[in-house]
Structures are given as C-alpha cells and as structure tokens.
Amino acid sequence: MEIVKIYSDKKKLIEKKVQVEGWVRFNRPSKNIGFIELTDGTNLHGIQLIYKAENKEIYNTLSSLPLFSSIVISGILKDGKNDIEILVDKVIEKNETEENFPIGKKEHGLEFLRDNAHLRSKTKMFQSIMKIRSTASFAIHEFFNNEGYSLINTPIITGNDAEGAGESFLVSVKDGTFYDKQATLTVSGQLHAECYAQALKKVYTFGPTFRAENSHTTRHASEFWMVEPEASFTDYNEMMDTGWEMLKFIIKKTLDKNKDELEFLQKNNKKNLIEYLTSIVNSKLKKTSYRDAIKILQEAKKSGTKFENSKIEFGIDLATEHEKYLAGIHFKSPVYIYDYPAEIKSFYMYKNEDGTVRGYDLIVPEIGEIIGGSQREDRFDILTKVIKEKKQDLSELEWYINLRKNGYAKSTGYGLGFERMVMLLTGVENIRDVTAFPRTTGKLNF
Ligand code: 4AD
Ligand code: MG
C-alpha cells in the first residue's frame, strides 16, 4: 500500500495489518528496539517502522540495513506517540544498498548533489523540488484548459530560427542528408503556435526548447522547457493580464498541494518562502514602460546605486542586475516592462510609431526575466522590411510571413521559462537544481 494512502485511510487501518514498500531513509537500531524512516516517494516524510529485539529474525535483518536499501514489509499499523507507525512482523523482500552510498541522512549541499544527479532524487530536497515542478506543470495545463486554450505540440526539429538570435543546435545524421535543408532544434514554438492561433484562436505549446547560449549563469540552460500561449484577436495588454493570472494560478496550486514540500524548502533553503509566494498571489499587477524603467535606473544611479553595467540610457539591453533592481528593490514585486526599443528585440514584434515594439517581459525579484512576450507584427510589409534589416533569411520564414496574407488577425503571445518558474516556486537559485538532469554548456554528464 502506498504510504500516502495509509495516512489518508489511517482511521480505518489502525490495528490492522498493512504491507508497504519503500527505501530506508533513516535507520536507528538500539538494544531492544529499532526505528526506520521508510519513504516510497508518495509523501515527503515517509512513515516510521518499528522492529523489536524480541523478534530476533526481523531485528537482525532490519537493524543491519544500510540507508536507501529497498524493502517490502508487512506489519500492524499503530497509533504512535507522535504519528502513525508500523510494527513490522515480516520482511517480504529486501535489496541492500552497497557500501559507500554517497547520500546520507543529513541534508547535503546543492553543489555536492549536482555531481550526483543520478542519486539526488533520493533527498528530501529534490523530492520537494520535483513534486513542485510536477504540480506546476499540471497547473499550467489546467490553467490554459480552463481558459479555453488548445494544446498544440509544436515541432522540436525545425527549419527556421524562431528568435533570429542564431543560438540553435544543428541536427545532423552521419551522411548529412536527411531533410532538404539544415535542420535545427527549436528555440521557441512561437512561430508554429501563431499559425494555429490563426485557426483555433487560443493555443499553447509546452515543451522542451534548446539554446546554444554560451552563458555561464545560474539562469540559463541549453535545454529548458517553455510554455507558450498565443491568442489571436488579442492585444498585449490583455495578454500581460493572462500571464499574470497564470503565474498566480500556478503559485496558488502549489501552495494548496505542496505544503509539506514548501515547508521543507523554507526550513532548509529559503526563509519566508511561503509568505513570499502568498504575497505575490495577493498583489496587484504592476507594469512600467521601458522608457520609465530607464528613468528609474538613472535615478537609482544618481542616488548612489552601483551597477556593473553603468551605462544606462534609452536603447540598452537591460542586464540582469538592472532587472533585479527594478523588481527586487524598486517595485518589490514582479513587474512587466513593455515597449522596448526595436533594436534589442526580435523581428516579429509589432512596431509602434515611436520606434519601440510591443514586447513585454515579466521580471521578478532575484531571478529577473521569467516571461518574454509580444504582440506580433501583423503588417506584411513592415515585417518583411524588418527581417531584411535584421539580415535574417527571408526564404526560411516565407510560410510565416505569408500568414499575414491570409486574413491574419492581431495576435499576442509569450513564453514562460518553466525552470525559472520552478525557481520562483522553490526559492532555488540555480537552474541546475530545478532540473532532473540539467543541460548547460560544458560537461555532459548523466
Ligand atoms: O524571451 P524569450 O527568448 O521569448 C521567446 O522565445 C518568445 N518566442 C516567446 C513567445 O513569445 N512565444 O524566452 C521566453 C522565456 C524567458 O523569459 C525565460 O524565462 C526563458 O524563456 N528562457 C530561458 N530559460 C532557461 N534557459 C535559457 N537559456 C532561457 N532562454 C529563455
Ligand atoms: Mg526574452
């Protein structure tokens, strides 16, 4: 029986026989009695097993079990002093851990665990992070399903660079001929999603994304997941609201479903995590134009704030330290920045008359950008001109530009970096620690 079920049915099960399976997370034998904390992954704290010296065979078998051995046992469920526990009467199966298992009872540092990514799943820290990641993933599907969006699985192998940033991985086979052109791994499902938003109105794609950005930061991975909704007949103000509602929905679901995990993370990794998440759910959406954001940063500089990237003027690409200042210190909450200079943004964004584009980023304290989106350029001529100016391959994008010739309706979308969302939910500061097997530039382990 799953441990989580034993807890939920405990009233019925007290003094009855139960069978459980799991791994030994802690084993404390003493002279007359021994205790095992058994986990099967279905809840965070597992369940306590008791074995008594009066039953010699069981005592001998269990008292010598090293951590993370797997066992199947049966016993009587007891209403113990602090919580329910099982008095073991039979060991049905066991598979003992070999010596030198690197992970023990005490909580290890995240860095140590990164080198043991095949084993870190066994720690409460990673169980907590992965359970929350799973909740967040489900919440995203639930949110868009509730809002009437259709899920479109956009392709992973593509023939175009959706962001025009040239950061794609090439896909090849040994003799070099498979497709009739160079294929790449997708950097974003946006262009394909736009195509379906022009037919189904509201769509989203949620899948792996690949970027060969050579940046050694705590927020960039070369393989990460992105959620990309796209809605036609929708402008960017409406879509900023949708992004904000989505963010709050994901947080609410996590607060509801993962209390134990959040409490554990709060105790062991980030102080006030629950309060922080709750404050986001209760806060109002904040927005500022890029132009005003620059003014805020200039003021901050004047009053003595030191920025490494100290040239602050209209036209610069905001650095992470700028984003962290804006969200963390100035607004003290997530905030959208919109209407960026066209030069620093992608080709497909709708051009305003003043030379800015209808792009928007949601930035959050400590992490920086978590959502990046825009209203799309719907005018064929302007789009074509910008693509030429940015020296991108027009022929690769022909199918995409031509959507504008076929009754294109104003369309807006965004991408939420899923790992960054999980960083927000868990308070974990390195993207490598919210991914089961992280892919970043350099070593390719596991
Ligand atoms: O801002 P980005 O590049 O936007 C797009 O790709 C658009 N095509 C999305 C759209 O409009 N449909 O990426 C979106 C988000 C970022 O805000 C960030 O959270 C995340 O994806 N992201 C990364 N996360 C981890 N590692 C990386 N290397 C990332 N690059 C972007
Ligand atoms: Mg971006």
Model description:
This protein has 446 residues and is of the alpha+beta class. The protein has helices at 3-8, 10-13, 56-63, 110-114, 124-146, 190-200, 236-257, 259-268, 273-281, 290-302, 320-330, 380-389, 398-401, 418-426, and strands at 17-29, 33-39, 47-52, 70-79, 84-95, 150-151, 157-158, 170-171, 183-185, 202-210, 223-232, 287-289, 335-341, 356-364, 368-375, 411-417. The strands form 3 sheets. Strands 6-10-11-16-15-14-13-12 form an 8-stranded mixed β-sheet. Strand 1 (17-29) and strand 2 form a beta hairpin. Helix 5 (124-146) crosses helix 8. The longest helix has 23 residues, at 124-146. The protein is elongated and about 85 Å long. The model has no long low-confidence stretch (mean pLDDT 94). Magnesium ion is lined by residues 361, 369, 372.
